[in-house]
Amino acid sequence: MLIGELAERAGTSPRTLRYYEEHGLIRPRRDANGYRQYDDGELRVVNEIRALLADGFGVDDIKPFVDCLRAGNTAGHVCPDSVAVLRRRLAEVDGYLEQLTGVRQRLREQLSQAIEHREARCLLNP
Amino acid sequence: MLIGELAERAGTSPRTLRYYEEHGLIRPRRDANGYRQYDDGELRVVNEIRALLADGFGVDDIKPFVDCLRAGNTAGHVCPDSVAVLRRRLAEVDGYLEQLTGVRQRLREQLSQAIEHREARCLLNP
DNA sequence: CCTTGCCTTGACGCCGGTGTCAGGGCATAC
DNA sequence: GTATGCCCTGACACCGGCGTCAAGGCAAGG
Fold first, then answer.
1. In 3-state terms, what secondary structure has residue B84?
2. Reduced to 3 DSSP states, what percent helix, strand and coil does chain A have, rounded to the nearest 5?
3. 3-state secondary structure (DSSP) of residue A49
4. Could you give the CA distance from residue A66 to residue A49 in angstroms, rounded to a whole number?
5. Interstrand relation of B29-30 and B36-37 (parallel, antiparallel or unpaired)
6. Least C-beta-crowded within 10 Å: which of A12, A30, B18, B110?
7. How many beta carbons lie within 10 A of that of residue A26, not counting itself?
8. Rounded CA gap, B87 and A94, in Å?
9. Do the chains contact at B78 and A117, CB–CB below 8 Å?
């Protein structure tokens, strides 16, 4: 399978696949032409990568998951290294959630203050 | 007050204040030397700007708040334009929260799967 | 032979708030 | 005069996951 086909099957672009390769996530064989040659299993790997990226992992966090899949495991997240990354990311997400929750509360306070302010003005100018 | 003093009083840097000015948020007078001259009220404005940035607003969202403060209001968020921006940002934050919550749930599922997987392996190799 | 369409590598652009460096002016104190 | 320390403008760097363009090779069909 050439890069264009894998890209289409994975719902992404050749550029993206080359980017993953540049970061050590995939290592296709090369044809005599120099063309990248992927076997069917790589589709799963690419899907795993894209799922992790969509969940906010960085490319450099993803390597353990890929290695885990390649080692023959049924899922990329069952290996110790993956678990460590998962824990780290979970803590990070919890931090963001806390922060965003604070922001949300301040926004709501400001909105309700603004509404009170408008009502007060109406009472002054009846 | 020169830019260095205002920067220190606001807990930031001259570079940052020039950036705000570049984006139309502050408009200091100029001394004969060309030095920026700020009056004391600008400290409040800068504090408002920094509070909004810390809550995830972009510099271009912040102008209504500054204008509102300058118009003599007790707070930057009581004017209609500010309220519109607040609502937009609140919706955005709600979106992020939803997304992050989904991510968090997936992370926890994967972690618990990994633990189950390890336990299963222990049972197989007693 | 020429076109078409895939492939290759390399490199710049984006976004946004700020750090940082370059190169130069002004002010105050010695 | 000069040393110090502030000020000025302008411009590049950062981060990260790509998009996109450039310039060229290879394969297959007319």
1. helix
2. 70, 5, 30
3. helix
4. 7
5. antiparallel
6. A30
7. 20
8. 24
9. yes
Q: Tokens in use for A89?
A: 């990311």
The closest CB to that of A93, out of B56, B107, B110, belongs to B107
Read off the pTM. 0.90
Encoded tokens for A93: 């997400």
A111 has a pLDDT exceeding 80: yes
- CA-nearest residue to A81 within chain B is B114
Tell me which protein residue sits closest to nucleotide D20, measuring alpha carbon to C1'. Answer: A15
Burial class (CB in 10 A: 0-12, 13-18, 19+), B74: exposed
CA-nearest of A103, A115, A106 to B78 is A115
Minimum-distance CB partner of B103 among A93, A100, A103: A93
- The token duo for A100 is 């965003």
Q: What's the one-letter identity of residue A70?
A: R
Residue whose pair of structure tokens reads 């929750």 in the numeric block: A101
